[in-house]
Amino acid sequence: MAYNSDEIRGVMIQVGEERLLLPNATVAEVLARVAVEPVEGAPAWLAGQIVWHGWNVPLVAFSRLAGLGDEPAMRNNRVIVLKGLGKDETLPYFALLTASFPQLVSVPRDSLLADASEEDLPRGVQMRVLLGEQSALLPDLEGVERMLGEALAAVA
């Protein structure tokens, strides 16, 4: 298959009332029905941690972090394991909670438009983009990783 640099491959997930567009390259695995261990004293958006391939992976409820409402009941949720961006060696992976099965999308670069109508973006969000008729949020994964590192250090 030829690689088309005019397209961005992504994974769309549902978080609260919003859709989050994740770069395909950051997604390590999608899991269903995972045992979640609570993290004592952690902020509400840190839903707990999961064990994945021998790693303790912190699980972020992104909609809570960004103030987009609560995630639905845990038992039907999916977990998206993301590769850390490498700033923190103790955090090679982290995971996001989603209510629905992720959707693979290919977005033509020239159709990905920044939606500048919003002045105050939710916490953990880099920008809102328009994909044709639909809007999606691009997460600030480095920022989320930083917040995770601080939250985990605070409860350690």
If you had to describe this structure to a student in words, what would you say it looks like?
It is a single chain. This protein has 156 residues and is mainly beta. The chain has two helices and eleven strands, in the order E-E-E-E-E-H-E-E-E-E-E-E-H. The strands form three sheets. Strands 3-6-7-5-4 form a five-stranded mixed beta sheet. Strand 10 and strand 11 form a beta hairpin.
Helix content: 10-25%
Strand order of the largest sheet: 3-6-7-5-4
Estimated structural class: mainly beta
Percent range for β-strand residues: 35-45%
Distance between the termini: 46 Å
Number of helices: 2
What is the average of the pLDDT values?
Answer: 87
Shape: globular
- Overall radius of gyration: 15 Å
Query: Element order, helices and strands?
Result: EEEEEHEEEEEEH
Low-pLDDT parts are: none
Largest sheet: 5 strands, mixed
Tell me the total number of β-strands: 11
How would you name the oligomeric state of the polypeptide chains in this document?
single chain
List the helices and strands and how they pair.
Elements: E1 7-15, E2 18-23, E3 27-32, E4 46-52, E5 55-60, H1 62-65, E6 78-83, E7 93-98, E8 103-108, E9 112-114, E10 125-131, E11 134-139, H2 141-155
Parallel strand pairs: 5-7
Antiparallel strand pairs: 1-2, 1-8, 3-6, 4-5, 6-7, 9-10, 10-11
Keywords:
2 helices, three-stranded antiparallel β-sheet, 156 residues, mainly beta, 12% helix, single chain, five-stranded mixed β-sheet
